[in-house]
């Protein structure tokens, strides 16, 4: 319908011309006819219709192209695209304003806590993904909350392939997931970052089933309040790679549900042996204040079945 309107409109303007204006006189005639038709109510309505159609199509195409590139999971302004689950509290209750946005960053803070009391929290992006490159820029700040565990000093995480947060029980401590563990240096000990921990899950490492809870990466230690960027390449249940400063610091395969290190979960959700092919992404609150400046993702699912295209896209985006 819109196409015929457009053709009719163009025909009205150019109908008396068998070819474009070739001289000053014909150009003047063309301009007069265009002005006359543009002031015609019927033509004006058709012109408006064409304009709106073109505008809509342009927005649709631009939006579709944007979704094929980097997606800013954190918009820099608010947490409207995120859902919160804190242990000992109901789903979506942001106890003591633990997660907040200030000065363009996500802040995980405990100034409203009298005691941490194992109230482990997670903030989940609103939709799941299966194959992607996740990029997170973070820094630890301040002092640990009173009552935080010793191991949780300068400790947080980017949780991958998480269970749906709506299925977590009130007192559940961690989501069933693969944790990209984030650690900050304490000024004394070597503390690698971008490690892996496995709350309610198992992985294969070096071709063998790995059953301990955590596995260190080979990254260097990042102390102080410096910003650090961690990347996580996740390809369904085939392979997961942790990347720091362009270097793969840890790689493992075949993530699946199983093992322990998660409490007070719904047994119907923890189906041991089930492959983790997709899931939600969350950021942790484990008692030490942390800030997240960038949380963005490149969706690789459209390329997952075509290795040549996948390799080409990865070669490009890993340089960005």
Question: What would you report as the Rg, rounded to the nearest angstrom?
Answer: 27 Å
Structural class: alpha+beta
Helix count, DSSP H or I runs of 4 or more residues:
4
Annotation, overall tally of beta strands: 17
- CA-based shape: globular
Terminal Cα separation, in Å? Answer: 43 Å
Q: Name the helix and strand elements from N-terminus to C-terminus, one letter apiece.
A: HHHEEEEEEEEEEEEEEEEEH
Helix content: 10-25%
User: Could you say what the CATH topology of the largest domain is called?
Assistant: Jelly Rolls
Please summarize the sheet with the most strands. Answer: 10 strands, antiparallel
Query: What is the CATH architecture annotation of the largest domain?
Result: Sandwich
Uncertain residue ranges = 1-21, 51-67
CATH superfamily of the largest domain: Exo-inulinase, domain 1
* CATH class assignment of the largest domain: Mainly Beta
* Whole-number count of domains: 2
β-strand percent reads 25-35%
Tell me, rounded to a whole number, the average pLDDT. 87
Description:
The protein is an alpha+beta fold and 320 residues long. It folds into 2 domains: 2-67, no CATH class; 71-317, Exo-inulinase, domain 1 (Jelly Rolls, Sandwich). It is 21% helix and 31% strand. It contains 4 helices and 17 strands. Strands 1, 3, 4, 6, 10, 11, 13, 14, 15 and 17 form a 10-stranded antiparallel β-sheet that branches. Strands 2-5-16-7-8-9-12 form a 7-stranded antiparallel β-sheet, with no helix packed on it. Residues 1-21 and 51-67 have low confidence and may be disordered.
